[in-house]
């Protein structure tokens, strides 16, 4: 009898040790850059280095697990009041390691202007770093959300976020398909004198097309600096801007020398679009998409 009890105790102990051992194991996956990384099965402490990733993590219900975010995530609704704000243009490896994160959800933007991986030392210390390049398509945004949810063991929540966003975008796209006379649109993300906008291969261009309009710079590739003469020559019907760091950006556009004969300016069709939702590739692009649709085709999308 004693031997039997002893055997049971040993078996239970073995099972418990196995469970504990499995829970502490890491899994090897590929991040959105295609890099092989090791990710812990259990994630309790997260660092996010880009607002779009932070927005996804908060929507997944993981705000309480954020121990640090980038300084541009400070305005993301739902982040903890006491979360550490870090400048990731020059990340402090010692400080980051001291926060003991289980994973860093990093952005391709963190590598801008650097020849080396800014998180190389952190990763070498044993902390998982998952890179998510800034997506240039709506499908890419869906894939980012799915990846983050899988890594953080919130797959079902991620699936719901993607399905809900898709549903709302599809409602707009259905109306956009019925529009025959497409308005020409110029979307400004950098004001004069150094204009900045975008062409194809961007999620914003895709959004303009879904609405049923046409980006006047659609033949250009990705992010560009067009000349004022180009915009005047293209003569857009509607001008949108998400610039928020100058006073009265729409009035500034309408007051530019030589722009008074552009259709959008003549007809007072210059509109401000929410900055964050139109510049951060997350589920919140739906807010910008709705604003853009109502500005371009108010009779179609205000009903």
TrEMBL record:
SUPFAM superfamilies: Helical backbone' metal receptor. It comes from the Bacteria. It holds the Pfam family Peripla_BP_2. Residues 45-300 form the Fe/B12 periplasmic-binding domain. InterPro entries: ABC_Transporter_SBP, ABC_transptr_periplasmic_BD. GO terms for biological process: cellular response to iron ion. PANTHER family: MOLYBDATE-BINDING PROTEIN MOLA (PTHR30535:SF34), VITAMIN B12-BINDING PROTEIN (PTHR30535). Belongs to the bacterial solute-binding protein 8 family. This is Periplasmic binding protein. It comes from Romboutsia hominis.
